[in-house]
Design goal:
Elements: H1 6-27, H2 36-52, H3 58-90, H4 92-101, H5 110-146, H6 157-193, H7 197-216, H8 219-229
Keywords: Membrane, Transmembrane, Transmembrane helix
Pfam families: DUF599
Transmembrane segments: 7-26, 73-96, 117-135, 184-212
Length: 230
């Protein structure tokens, strides 16, 4: 950490604060019930309730397959980003020469450059594990859907438990997918760190504001909320 200046440490601390603070607000705070993610979890419950009344559930498994494919895409992208990060780490001298040629406003040492690249790699490793676990959870959800009782048992305790288990697994998969996607968004702030710590702070703040707006003030959030209330 002796490679980091006071401004670098402040920027990195701000990054952690913004990411952690946003995650707390969306995932655990009382405000989460006004978020888009929360409203979509309610729709997941409604989905399982509607599924319970259907005789043919092929459309539901097709939806789960689509969700899995999207998750697999981001997991694969995470692996590619991790590989690119290690390639960048092995090309430190070339990268430093390019930064000198571009006359960046801050002097970058070899150690500081490697710290920044390792931070990016760590972020994408975290994202990969989130996407990988989300993929497994969507797979478990499809198994739970396959284990649903027939529609003529709609009023049974067995059906109620099946609805609860499937909706919870589906919501948990969505939560881990969102956390992986969140890591992707905040990684854009880390890229700004390669140019200047102040740009890192500004980009991170902008990303946090955009994500907050999408969760609480966007048209999609209002639409999801309105549909839940109906």
């Amino acid at each position: 950490m002796n490679q980091l200046s006071t401004l670098d440490l402040a920027a990195l601390s701000w990054f952690i604060l913004m990411w952690g603070g946003f995650s707390l607000i969306v995932d655990t705070s009382p405000l989460r019930k006004k978020s888009l993610s929360y409203h979509m979890n309610q729709h997941r419950l409604r989905w399982m309730q509607a599924l319970a009344e259907r005789e043919m559930r092929m459309v539901d498994t097709a939806i789960i397959t689509g969700l899995q494919n999207g998750t697999a895409f981001f997991a694969s992208t995470s692996l590619l980003a991790i590989g690119a990060g290690f390639a960048l780490l092995n090309s430190t001298d070339l990268a430093l020469q390019i930064s000198y040629d571009l006359n960046l406003p801050v002097e970058v040492s070899r150690g500081l450059w490697e710290v920044k690249v390792l931070a990016l790699i760590t972020l994408y490793i975290y994202a990969f594990f989130k996407f990988g676990w989300a993929y497994r959870l969507f797979n478990y959800t499809s198994i739970l859907i396959g284990a649903f009782p027939p529609p003529d048992k709609i009023e049974s305790i067995e059906m109620s438990e099946a609805i609860h288990q499937a909706s919870e697994a589906n919501s948990l998969a969505g939560r881990h997918f969102n956390r992986g996607l969140r890591a992707f968004f905040f990684s854009l702030g880390l890229f700004a760190w390669f140019i200047h710590p102040l740009l890192f702070i500004g980009t991170t703040t902008y990303i946090a504001l955009v994500l907050t707006r999408r969760q609480f003030l966007s048209r999609s959030s209002k639409l999801a909320s309105r549909l839940v209330e109906e």
